[in-house]
Design a protein that fits this description.
It is built from 10 helices and 9 strands. The chain is α/β, with parallel strands linked by helices and 293 residues long. The chain has a 7-stranded mixed β-sheet. A two-stranded antiparallel sheet has the order 6-7. It starts with a helix and ends in a 17-residue tail after the last helix.
Length: 293
């Protein structure tokens, strides 16, 4: 047994044991972890506060601190709820994730089209794959991911993310794999979390997002357009602790003559979600590290 496999088995055993605990108990642990992360270790507090102040210049310091506190609690909830995927039944996930607008995904699939589902780091994006159980029969349910540097932990996360039968496609292999599915005469419903900072050193695409000049990635739109796919927005909104409402809505492209009308329309929808419920976006991500200059 090599070192990576040993680490993987150790991580998986520990995670499985933790996942046996009821979610209510795990949320108590999460509350304590949030206090440590926020108040003691001050994990990325500077980044969170900078991002919140840039996005909400009209809010008072007290309002921003309240959003900040709720964000850290939600962030820790995501960690423990992701771990819970190691031991959660279909019946449990069905009770905890209410899915609305599934026809926005299934109608194009029935018509023989693939679907690009655009999501954000909003709500619990790790539980979005629960919707794959409701996709039109024969659909290849998949999601694009960025492999982690730690190989053992990356393997563990792939186990969790494939809990509901979804295929995880490494970012570098996105085009090749989706073209392969298309050439095989199959249709896919593929999730793109498209709100992260672009990895490429040359930033070509910019738009206004949360009132800030923001670079964005357009890979989902480029691939979807090439394959004649439909575009859908997925919002994963917390309705109470450990319970979410996942809503799918068709994306109508912007008609302003500018580039990437579907991606920018998606970013508008995500911005609306964030402004309605600010604590549930990933504020610890250094989203605006780079500027156009």
């Amino acid at each position: 047994m090599n070192k990576t496999t040993l680490k993987y088995k150790t991580f998986k055993t520990a995670l499985t044991i933790a996942a046996l605990l009821p979610l209510g108990v795990l949320h108590i642990i999460s509350s304590f972890a949030a206090f440590l992360l926020h108040k003691i270790f001050k994990y990325r507090v500077g980044v969170v506060r900078k991002n919140l102040r840039m996005a909400f210049p009209e809010k008072s310091d007290a309002e921003l601190r309240a959003i900040e506190s709720r964000f850290y609690l939600h962030l820790c909830d995501i960690f423990i709820e992701t771990a819970k995927l190691a031991h959660i039944s279909d019946a449990q996930i069905a009770r905890r994730v209410t899915i609305e607008g599934i026809d926005a995904v299934n109608d194009p699939l029935k018509e023989g089209k693939s679907v690009v589902v655009m999501l954000g780091h909003y709500g619990n994006w790790e539980w979005v794959t629960a919707a794959a159980r409701l996709f039109y029969p024969g659909t290849v349910a998949c999601e694009i991911y960025h492999p982690l540097r730690n190989k053992a932990f990356d393997r563990l996360m792939l186990d969790l993310r494939s809990r509901f039968g979804t295929e995880n496609i490494p970012m570098a292999k996105t085009v090749r794999r989706l073209l392969e599915i298309h050439r095989d005469g199959k249709n896919f419903a593929c999730g793109f979390i498209a709100d992260q900072r672009p990895f490429t050193p040359t930033l070509k695409h910019w738009t206004d997002f949360l009132g800030i000049d923001t670079a964005y990635v357009n890979g989902g739109e480029v691939i979807g357009e090439k394959l004649g796919a439909a575009f859908v927005y997925g919002e994963m909104l917390p309705v109470s602790r450990g319970h979410y409402r996942l809503t799918f809505t068709p994306i109508t492209p912007l008609e302003d003559g500018e580039e990437n009308p579907y991606t920018r329309a998606y970013l508008h929808k995500l911005e609306e979600s964030i402004r309605r419920n600010p604590p549930y976006w990933l504020w610890s991500h250094n989203r605006w590290k780079r500027t156009r200059q």
